[in-house]
Amino acid sequence: MSSISSEHDIGAAEEVEEMEVTETQSRNYNYDDSSENKENEEMQEVNSPQLSCSSSNAKEDTLLQLVRNKRLRSKDICKDWIRHYGLSSEAALIKLMEFILEASGSQYKLPRDLKPPFNYMEILITATAQFGNKSAAYPLIMKTSDQFVQDICNFVEQLLQLLSATSIISDDCFLNTISDFLMVCSDSKVRPFRHTSTLIALKLMTLLNGLVAWEQTNLKEIWLQMFAKVFLARSNDVVEDIRHLCIAECGLWLDKYPESFVDLHQVQHLYQALQDSCLKVCEASLQALLRLYHNPRLRPVCLEQGIKFRMTLLGLTMSAECELGQMSIQLLIMFYRLTPQILDESMIQVIEQLVFAAHRGVAQAAADLIPFRYHCATTDKERIRVLVQFFIQFGQHEHAAYFVDAFYGCNDIILDWNSMLSMLLHPESMSSQEISVLIEIMTRAVKQAVTGEIPVGRYTKDLVRNPHPHAKKQASKILLPKLPTLLQQYRSCSQDLRNLLELPQYMNLLRTQFLEVLEPIKDIMFEQEDESVLQMGAKTLEHLYGMKDWFADHRKELLNNAVSNYKSAVNDWDQSKDNPGRLVVTLRLLSALYARFDLHDWQLAEQLLLTLKQVARNPTENSLPNEAIDLYLSVFYVALSWDLKRVQDLAIAGKDVAEECHALRNRLKDFLVVNFTLIQISTDAKVANNAFVYTCDLFVLFADALRKSCSPSIQALEYKSKQHEYELLEEYLQRYVFAGADAGAAIQLLEPEQFSMLQSKRRVLVSYLKLVFHNVMPMMRACVVYQYYEQYHPVFGDILRATMERSLAMNPTNFGMTVMHTCLLVYKRIRETYSNSVQAAASMEFAQLLRLANLLAELFHIKQLEVRQGILILHRAGIRFAAELTLDDPSAAPRDLLYLSVLQQFVPQLLAQDMLDVFNFLQFIDQTSLPSRADEWQPLLSYRNSLEIALRQSCRREDLNDIPSYTIE
Questions:
Q1: What is the gyration radius of the CA atoms in the chain, in angstroms?
Q2: Is the dihedral of CA 438, 442, 444, 448 positive or negative?
Q3: CA-CA distance, 508 to 473, in Å (whole number)?
Q4: Residue 106 in 3-state DSSP?
Q5: pLDDT at 555 exceeding the cut of 90
Q6: pLDDT digits over 27-51, tens only?
Q7: Are 925 and 940 contacting, i.e. CB atoms less than 8 angstroms apart?
Q8: φ and ψ at 34, to 5 degrees?
Q9: Shortest CA distance to 533 belongs to which of 490, 580, 570, 483?
Q10: DSSP state of 735
């Protein structure tokens, strides 16, 4: 038995000399060096690998076990194997072949008396029967595969490095034997052999490229033979992971060793891989091509093939897998810089429009192409004009933030606020549309540079804020002095004014500059009628007044004037009832300011509530326009919110708030009565929707969270919503959000002209689901909404899924019952429609129910151990419902046995131990008197079979032996 000391680091020269000596020694090589002292031998016994050429030691560690042993050095294992090769090349090669077989999952031990030439096919056939794991899993696809692959590759690399210093690498035995064995294994029909041997063979080819001289004819022949029989064959393998290995390694060969055995024109294999159905293979190909482009020697070949595959690359730019799209765009733009003819105008437009894509990487990659449009522009202003015209051609107002984000951090043209300001101050050559777009781009650029916020809806790997250094200082220096001029110059356009009013929120103001900005904004607030302008102006005023308390009097005067105007308009309306225009205008301003400032001191609440109660009490006699009613709702909702905050602050300060809380509670009850009335009777969708939204929000604000207060008065403010109130809300949901719940209803909402309607319905739906999200309403009530999850998945799927995931995390058991009853709602409607279960099972509606169940089942894939009780209770409750016997005919199959077909969709979500529990629980269904019509019992058989199949594929398969088999006669 040999041993290698792990305590000494032998130098490179000594290693080479030692390897050569080993190679020429006779078979009676003494592995137990007598010159070593006893203490060193004891150390070796603990820390050194033990390889033997004999099979006498039954407990001998295999080569793979030694490689996986973290206490052993890979170098020591390799050196010991080489010593064995010097003693007996056949025995050492057998060890290495066993290593490949065991790495594949086979436990086969080759006979020690096996002599070359080896019959590789016979070895594989015998090894196939020796797999220790009876399941389909093998080491390369298990959870620990990353570390396993690393250990295998490290060993192969270490072995080749040491062998390259000896003549073994070029003898007629080692490489020929191992390469032949790997080629035979890689062609096996047994996937573990094929996968593992392909990995090792490709790694061996890579190492041969880097470690040996390319002039050696015999090595080149072996390499090319492996290229043909391993790479070319396996790059078209049916297994995605095997194809991925081939493409990734091919890219490495071309990148690191372009002068070696592989032909440079083999880059075509990388391009062909772009058409692979596996995203991982495409990604490996693109990554390799991007690296190869930077090699001057390979660039012409890449370009030549790129022209042939440009349509494939263009198709990948719009891939659902955004990383592929990003890399495809980068590659096409690189080629375009070299050869502009590679892309025609239509192709360029396809790529350019991706600046509006939701994925940030794709958008920023596409933005690199747009500067080619202004290659003729000679000044910064001309370049900015090109960007503006591009946005007008392809963009929309809502996409300006996306457009700016595509350039942010990549092209500083969007930060050239000096040029933009100059263009706005002297816009003679610009159209009104160009001016509006430029203001929008400038505002979005200032916001992102100061805050670093990524636009809502745009996603990337890491949503890290990245403010531009000194952006606030630069914006204040450049734009602030001219902001009053711009506000005056563009006050006729609401969109421009709203954007300009937003700018002070991202600036630093000196005391002397405050009045210069506040006065123009104050004038705008009392002149403008557009709600969006007023809301932005109020937000900016809140920001400015909050920065310093220098202008408290200015703030009070502005608010007082707004309230006075409103009261004057109310008096005029009460007297004449003729023209509500002035009342509506003052209500808009009041609503905008009340949302940002507490107007409690002006005692508006009682008068506002009185007006709303009159509207709800006598809707036919009401002469207020719907817009005024909507504004009254908005103002009073905000008033209640401010009042709640104020009494909570007073209670924390130790004040007595009993009287104020009592009055607030009464106002809350009266307002909810008004809202419920308007939800039922209002013919204006906006009024009814806002009444619905405010009701749901107030349920959340005045929920049981108030119990946490130390003040009994605050605790008494808790509003306990009632069942009939939930029913009223759900009735409106059915009537408005899910109206016309047929196959085409959801698709119609995706039409561009339906955008406003879609947003309105989503807002109402979100408000209702807040009650579930914040645990205000019983979770199971949401069944009425979840039953539409499949039908409305394209438009509401994100909202519903987020709510359900939250519910599942809060209480898996309750959520399991919620899912069960969701399916039950749909199931009962189907059963009422069809006379028997066989007809129901064949219906389109039942197929749709199964699709719903599949979607709901996906929710339980996350953290299965934590949510196991939810999926288990779902099955148990569903079985009990399905097993209820018909009283009229107890011998017949249970009427609702068909529901088991729905439960069957949730079987994959069960843990192995729970599958057995459900399987046993299922046995209580009485099958002693089965009818002659077996199709009525088919759902039970299918459900049981699916459980049994899942169990046989799990770690609890042996438990099935104790369970009796059931058959229908």
A1: 38
A2: positive
A3: 7
A4: strand
A5: yes
A6: 333 333 333 333 343 334 334 455 5
A7: yes
A8: -70, -15
A9: 490
A10: I
238 phi and psi angles, rounded to 5 deg: -75, -20
Question: In angstroms, how far is CA 886 from the centroid of its own chain?
Answer: 47
pLDDT in tens, 764-812: 999 999 999 999 999 999 999 999 999 999 999 999 999 999 999 999 9
CA dist 547 and 758 (Å) reads: 38
Spatial CA neighbour of 353 closest among 322, 385, 396: 396
**Best CA proximity match to 949, nearest among 908, 892, 905:** 908
Q: Three-state DSSP class for 541?
A: helix
Q: Which residues pair with 359 in a beta bridge?
A: 459
Give exposure, 736-771, as e/b (b: 16+ Cβ within 10 Å). Answer: bbbeeeeeeebeebeeeeeeeebebbbebbbbbbbb
345 pLDDT higher than 70: yes
Q: Residue holding tokens 């899993």? A: 137
| Nearest Cα to Cα of residue 866 among 822, 810, 907 | 810
Which residues make beta-bridge pairs with 106?
131
Q: Running DSSP on this structure, what letter comes out for residue 359? A: B
Strand partners, 374: none
Look at the alpha carbons of 495, 498, 500, 502 in this order and tell me if their dihedral is positive or negative.
negative
Q: How confident is the model at residue 11 (pLDDT cuts 50, 70, 90)?
A: very low
Query: What is the spatial distance between Cα 467 and Cα 378, in angstroms, rounded to a whole number?
Result: 29
Compute CA distances 864 → 17, 928, 946, whole Å: 58, 36, 19
Rounded to 5 degrees, φ, ψ at 426 are -130, 75
The residues, ordered by sequence, that sit 6+ positions from 160 with a Cβ below 8 Å of its Cβ are 169, 204, 207, 208, 211
Q: How many CA atoms lie within 13 A of 314 on its CB side?
A: 18
Read off the tokens for 9. 């680091």
**189: phi > 0 → left, psi -120 to 50 → alpha, else beta; which?**
alpha
Hey, how many other C-beta atoms are within 10 angstroms of the C-beta on 969?
A: 5
Distance CA 63, CA 51 (A): 8
Give the span between the Cα atoms of 897 and 513, in whole angstroms. Answer: 77
3-state DSSP call for residue 459? strand
Query: For residues 884 and 894, what is the distance between their CA atoms, to the nearest angstrom?
Result: 6
The set of residues, in sequence order, having a beta carbon less than 8 Å from that of 798 and lying 6+ positions away, is: none
Angle at 700 between CA 677 and CA 605, to 5 degrees: 55
- How far, in Å, CA of 152 to CA of 138, rounded? 14
- Classify residue 834 by burial, with Cβ atoms within 10 Å: 0-12, 13-18, 19+: middle
Longest dimension (CA), the chain: 122
Residue ranges with strand state E in 648-799:
none
φ and ψ of 710, to 5 deg: -80, -10
Angle at 535 between CA 752 and CA 703, to 5 degrees: 90
**Weakest-pLDDT range from 171-185, 613-627, 944-958:** 944-958
List 131's β-bridge partners, or say none: 106
208 in Cβ contact with 160 (< 8 Å):
yes
CA-to-CA separations, 931 to 775, 888, 937, in angstroms, rounded: 47, 15, 9
Model confidence at 5: pLDDT above 80? no
Q: What is the pLDDT of residue 170?
A: 82
Q: In this structure, are residues 910 and 916 in contact, taking their beta carbons and an 8 Å threshold?
A: no
pTM comes to: 0.80
Cα 152 to Cα 174: distance, rounded to the nearest angstrom: 18
The yes-or-no verdict on residue 56 having pLDDT over 60 is no
Q: Which amino acid is at 86?
A: G
Three-state secondary structure call for residue 658: helix
What average pLDDT does the segment 883-892 reach?
67
Read off the pLDDT of each residue in 899-925 and give the average, rounded to a whole number. Answer: 88
